[in-house]
Amino acid sequence: MLQYIGRRILQMIPTVFLISVISFILIQLPPGDYLTSIVATLAQSGDYLDQDQLAQLKRQYGLGQPVYVQYAKWMWGILSRGSFGQSFFWNRPVTELIADRLSITVILTLTTMIFTWAVGLPIGIYSATHQYSKLDYLFTSTSFIGLATPDFMLALILLYLGVVYLGKSYAGLFSPEFADAPWSFARLVDMMKHIIVPLIIGGTSGTAGLVRIMRGSLLDELNKPYVITARAKGLSERKLLWKYPVRVAINPFVSTIGWTLASLFSGGTIIAVVLGLPTVGPLMLSALMAQDMYLAGSILFIMSILTVIGTLISDLLLAWVDPRIRFEGGGR
Amino acid sequence: MSQSEVRAQTLPEAEAPTSAAEAEEKVLTASQWQLMWWKFRRHKMAMFGGAFVFLMYLCAAFCEFLAPYPLDMRDSKHVTAPPQLLRWRDDEGNFHLRPFVYGLKEHVDPISWRRTFTEDPAQIYPVYLFARTHPYKFWGLFETKVHLFGVKGEEATIFLLGSDSMGRDLFSRILYGARISLSVGLLGVLLSLVIGAVLGGISGYYGGLIDNVMQRLIEVLRSIPHIPLWMALSAALPPGLPPQQTYFGITLVLAVIGWTGLARVTRGKILSLRDEDFVMAAKICGTSETRIIVRHLLPSFFSYLIVSVTLSIPGMVMGETSLSFLGLGMRPPYTSWGVLLSEAQNIGNIAHRPWILIPGLFLIATVFAFNFLGDGLRDAADPYTR
User: What is the ipTM of this complex?
Assistant: First the structure.
């Protein structure tokens, strides 16, 4: 097992390296750089920078250097000091800017994920064991709707319903009266109320996918001869279900953690923009608009790294759940 | 369900020749495509989904004619008007053979000064088929004024789904938007298909180092969350780009991730087909590699490709909508459903005129239909399902 873990971690290194290069190149892609956008903004207000100032700023931001030098410096900063560079727009270290928002993002994503699992797994099992029952139809068709509705549409619809029927906007993380208040129990309750909205939105599409996967793979298992044998030998339905088919059917379910995480980050970005949540998503959008390259690139990089770690965890879990993977020592 | 199952099973027989032996022979001699079509026809939801998708594409193709107004026709007197219902019966209970809409009456809120409109039963505007109203150029070919339907008169309006903040008809704009939104899905998938099938095919057929590198690349691309990646890529499109190039740029951006899924399907299928006996036989006969790929491998997994293509179109359409919604996608005059929805970013707008969410319903319905269609195709393409 230890050997397996070690190899998987080693395999991660080239992936992470490639992701860092891709994030960096992506952020370099827009024509011009932060300075051109400053000059353009200044020109609009009738102001301008002279050549000396421009050159000085260029040196200060390190924008004149070749791309690979900039990349090497950025990477070195991350590896040696854990510093992701300086945000041009905010004129503050990227690490400082992301820190708060990242923890909220991670908390939100993880709670959504647990919610998704807690709802998706039992429903999937129920749907498979009660195939073609009324509830199965209800769940299956709801999951179709969940898959077909983009997250931001759901967010808009929920906001609308909140305003019309509850007379209250559930956008943001806090109600206005708690926005700047110090931490208290009431503030925590208020935050919980607001977190439910993104939780439901993010959870719906995720749950829908999981229900379909669990239902499909469990149905495949239930038709296998060993289930019939076990039933013929008089094993109770409950034990029969939980001890064998569910354990096998959960494999594809476990292996989806990686991409569930990716899609939660992905969907979370746009939900956060609609709901005005203080996660990294809206920060990235504004950074992209302002060509604040280290900020945008770092966010993209960190989100991808978290996804890679999620995939690693799901692979390890899979090896733990399924001895075949562990003993064959096989790849994926 | 049992009832529909029975019907589904009896259906092929109903159309098949009278004797059972003949029917069996028909099945045995049927081509792969015929078998798939028969199986697909049994899947009612898939047929329905297919019909809906076809209808939406028809609407997109003929949107100039179907829409009562041109894309950017502004009616500054009737901004943010609510939907006007198409009616046959007026308030006094009289039945009209020709459908009509009520005119709009303006109210000004004495406190907030906001202008709102309500339907006014005093004004009745009959709706004419093939009405000659606003001039447009059909497919850029010839000038005409004929619309499928319209109302006549200076003050007459027909906003079936309301109007936006500039007094433009939402129904017309949704039809025009369908053209952009749906074609982006199709074009993006075509691009992904070309890249994915070629790279996936190479990767599966040759294996070894090429395969390893390709798989690693796909893995890396898939671990970057889609929407942030799309955002970064479309932010790279310069803002001054002509709208047409932005359109192709966005399509390309969507294909950057789209191809990975299709490459995986192709690779997996090729890998399993490569060791089949018939491929071995062809090799021993001295068939060239190109001929093996084109003549033996491609037809075997073509149906699977069609299925994954159908199932990946809705993802593309949703991706484009999300980007345009955030303001990183299409730019006017290229109006997509996402561009229409971006007006709904403001919660105040949604609360006062919820009809601006309607383009989203079109989106959901289309994605729904595509999913059903894809599901039906998948069942039909699988030779082992009954």
Answer: 0.82
